[in-house]
Specification:
With about 220 residues, this protein is α/β, with parallel strands linked by helices. The chain contains 8 helices and 12 strands. The strands form 3 sheets. A 5-stranded parallel sheet has the order 2-1-3-4-5, sandwiched between helices. A 4-stranded antiparallel sheet has the order 6-7-8-9, covered by helices on one side. The protein has a 3-stranded antiparallel sheet with strand order 10-12-11. Helix 6 crosses helix 8.
Length: about 220
C-alpha cells in the first residue's frame, strides 16, 4: 500500500490512478491528520507527501514521521511544486528519500517510486557487512560498534552501508547522492556533507575511518 497525501483532489486522484494502473495499491489522503489516522490501522510501504498542506505542512508531517519509532523507517517521497534548492535540501535533510517537483511526467514518477522501494526493500535480509569493529546487519537495519548498538537514521544507515560496501574506494559526493538519495541535484552536495558529519559523530572514535578526500569526496578505510 502507498499513501498519497495531497490536498488538491485532481492531483491526488491522478497519482492514485497512476499507481493502481501500474500494479500498486494506493490510498489518497487530504492532509497530515488523515495520514496519522490511517497509520493507526495500517503501515504503508511508502508515503507520497505534498509540502503545502492545510494544517501541518509537509515538513512538519515529515518531522513527526521520522521522530516516531513506529514510522521512522517508512520511506517518504516529497511531491511538491516547490523547486528551490533550499526546499530540496531541507526535505532530504529532514529524512525524505526523494524529492519530485511538479509538474512531472507519470513515467518518471512511477520510476522514482520503484527506485525508492528498491532501495528501501527487504532484500538481503541475512546479509552482514563488517569493517574493523563495525558490523552491519543489512536486513535488520542494525549497526554495532564492537558490542554497542548505534542508533542511526535511515539515511545515515544507507550512507554507512554504501561506504562499507565500497571501503577503500574514494566516492564522490555526486556518487553518494546518486546512490543514497537516488539522483543528484544539479551539483548540490551539501546534504552529503551534513549526513557524513552526523555519521562521524555517532561513530565516535571510529568516525576517523571516514576520510575526506579534498576536492573529490570521501573514503572509508579500515
Amino acid at each position: 500500500m502507498i499513501y498519497c497525501v495531497e490536498d488538491e483532489k485532481n492531483i491526488r486522484e491522478l497519482l492514485v490512478y497512476t499507481l493502481e494502473a501500474t500494479g500498486f495499491s494506493a490510498k489518497g489522503l487530504e492532509d497530515g491528520s488523515g495520514l496519522f489516522k490511517a497509520l493507526e490501522k495500517e503501515e504503508p510501504e511508502l508515503i507520497l507527501l505534498d509540502i503545502m498542506l492545510p494544517g501541518d505542512d509537509g515538513y512538519a508531517v515529515l518531522q513527526k514521521l521520522k521522530s516516531d519509532p513506529r514510522t521512522k523507517n517508512i520511506p517518504v517521497i516529497l511531491v511538491t511544486a516547490r523547486e528551490s534548492e533550499f526546499d530540496k535540501v531541507r526535505g532530504l535533510d529532514g529524512g525524505a528519500d526523494d524529492y519530485i517537483t511538479k509538474p512531472f511526467g507519470m513515467m518518471e514518477f512511477v520510476a522514482r517510486v520503484k527506485a525508492v522501494l528498491r532501495r528501501c526493500g527487504k532484500s538481503g535480509e541475512e546479509r552482514e557487512l563488517t569493517c574493523g569493529e563495525l558490523r552491519i546487519s543489512v536486513g535488520r537495519h542494525e549497526v554495532f560498534l564492537e558490542e554497542q548498538k548505534l542508533e542511526l537514521t535511515r539515511k545515515e544507515f544507507e550512507l554507512l552501508q554504501y561506504f562499507v560496501e565500497n571501503k577503500g574506494m574514494v566516492m564522490s559526493r555526486n556518487q553518494i547522492l546518486g546512490y543514497v538519495w537516488g539522483y543528484d541535484f544539479d551539483g548540490e552536495t551539501r546534504t552529503v556533507d551534513v549526513h557524513v558529519r552526523s555519521l562521524r559523530q555517532k561513530l565516535g572514535d571510529a568516525g576517523d575511518m571516514l576520510e575526506t578526500v579534498r576536492g573529490v569526496g570521501y573514503r572509508l578505510r579500515e
